[in-house]
Write a structure and sequence with these properties.
Layout: H1 11-30, H2 36-51, H3 55-71, H4 75-92, H5 95-112, H6 115-125, H7 132-135, H8 142-155, H9 159-171, H10 178-194, H11 198-215, H12 218-234, H13 238-254, H14 261-275, H15 278-291, H16 299-312, H17 316-333, H18 336-352, H19 356-369, H20 377-390
Helix pairs in contact: 1-2, 2-3, 3-4, 3-5, 4-5, 5-6, 5-8, 6-8, 8-9, 8-10, 9-10, 10-11, 10-12, 11-12, 12-13, 12-14, 13-14, 14-15, 14-16, 15-16, 16-17, 16-18, 17-18, 18-19, 18-20, 19-20
């Protein structure tokens, strides 16, 4: 709970608090943000932060708790704590603390599916994200912020803006810092996978994974194994891809990192589909839908994937329900990228049942919304499908 008057503290208290915060930063990188050791270090800092009399220190502590909640997959709690950190940062006024607080809002709101809210906080935070103190923070907070802002831009149908933000991220990376390179490489690989640029995703993830494994960054290793495995499966190496994704998920869960697990589980289902194991893929995609319903950024695509799998088993009516549910959820979030992809799936299904005009009309409507990204695989595929339906 926020307090209007913070208690006074001694210089010794502040020194101990800053030592603990440094320990939190080190543990976050070496054991993971949600590892028991990291959580324990943050909780031990709590009484010192509250006693410190320093808004800056209290902001840091609340921010750390928001990060841990998010990495643990507790996105509603992460947003609540981000809100608290932002209110404190607005009182304190430091650009460094404001940058961190707005960044926490961006990350948590994207995962919750509040894409408009994420964009609003990112736009406001632009005035602070280049602050030297924030950029030089050992936790490298600008990397996940720009990665998630890029992800958000892609989700809302702004592929060119997504690329622009990813380019800004890469420009700020310290080329001599292996953590920067591995972390940013993971973000770039994920963006390439989103855009179905699988060869590029494989190359980026492969290089970043080598660095992460060499330097023992467990959370990044887990994420990169999932991304690399997903790309390999789409490139025809399904068995290898399935194994890598399974390793990645297991590694993340071992250190308490549940952020993105719903997406990686869906990607595992996609890899099993590539392998021809449809029954296994259906079982896995059901797990993906149940593992963390609050994590909504990938959920429309997961519903679409279940529809495609059901279609392969001949369950046409259930498949249509999934496609329509995916479209409805994507629309409620403003996720135009997912809406387009799910509409293409539904249009193909309708066309097979002599409903070509209905299919063409719905696809033309969503395709006509886009103003950029026409070189992406999805928009190229939509244009081709529209031409086929017109014939």
């Amino acid at each position: 709970m926020l307090v209007n008057r913070l208690p006074e503290s001694t210089g010794r208290d502040l020194r101990e608090l800053r030592l603990r915060q440094s320990m939190v930063g080190m543990l976050s990188i070496t054991t993971g943000y949600a590892a028991p050791e990291t959580i324990d270090a943050v909780e031990r800092a709590a009484p010192l932060a509250e006693k410190s009399g320093s808004l800056a220190e209290l902001i840091n502590w609340v921010g750390s708790r928001s990060v841990i909640a998010g990495i643990s997959g507790e996105w509603p709690a992460a947003v609540t704590l981000a809100d608290e950190a932002l209110q404190l940062a607005l009182r304190e006024g430091s650009p460094e603390r404001l940058a961190g607080a707005y960044g926490l809002e961006v990350i948590a709101r994207v995962k919750l599916g509040d894409l408009a809210g994420a964009e609003k906080h990112f736009t406001t935070g632009l005035a602070f994200f280049n602050d030297p103190g924030f950029r030089q923070s050992p936790l490298r907070g600008f990397i996940p912020i720009l990665h998630n802002a890029s992800h958000n831009a892609w989700l809302v149908g702004r592929a060119d803006l997504a690329r622009e933000r990813m380019a800004q991220l890469m420009t700020g990376v310290d080329r001599g810092n292996p953590y920067d390179l591995a972390f940013s490489g993971c973000g770039a690989a994920l963006r390439s996978f989103d855009m179905r640029e699988y060869e590029q995703a494989e190359a980026l993830a492969g290089r970043a994974l080598e660095l992460a494994e060499k330097n023992q960054f467990p959370q990044i290793v887990g994420m990169l194994r999932c991304v690399l495995g997903s790309a390999l499966a789409q490139l025809g190496r399904a068995a290898e891809g399935v194994s890598l994704i399974q390793q990645g998920i297991a590694g993340l869960l071992e250190i308490g990192a549940r952020a993105g697990i719903s997406q990686y589980t869906a990607c595992l289902a996609g890899a099993q589909d590539c392998q021809g194991a449809i029954a296994d893929a259906l079982e896995t995609v059901e797990q993906a839908l149940k593992v963390n319903p609050d994590e909504r950024d990938y959920r429309p695509e997961t519903l679409r994937l279940r529809g495609e799998l059901r279609l392969k088993q001949g369950h046409t009516e259930l498949a249509e329900v999934d496609f329509r549910d995916a479209i409805a959820l994507a629309r409620s979030m403003g996720a135009k990228a997912w809406e387009l992809r799910a509409t293409m799936s539904l249009a193909r299904l309708l066309a097979k049942h002599a409903r070509c005009e209905e299919a063409r009309a719905m696809l033309a409507e969503i395709y006509g919304w886009f103003t950029e990204g026409f070189d992406t695989a999805d928009l190229k595929g939509a244009r081709t499908l529209l031409d086929e339906l017109a014939e």
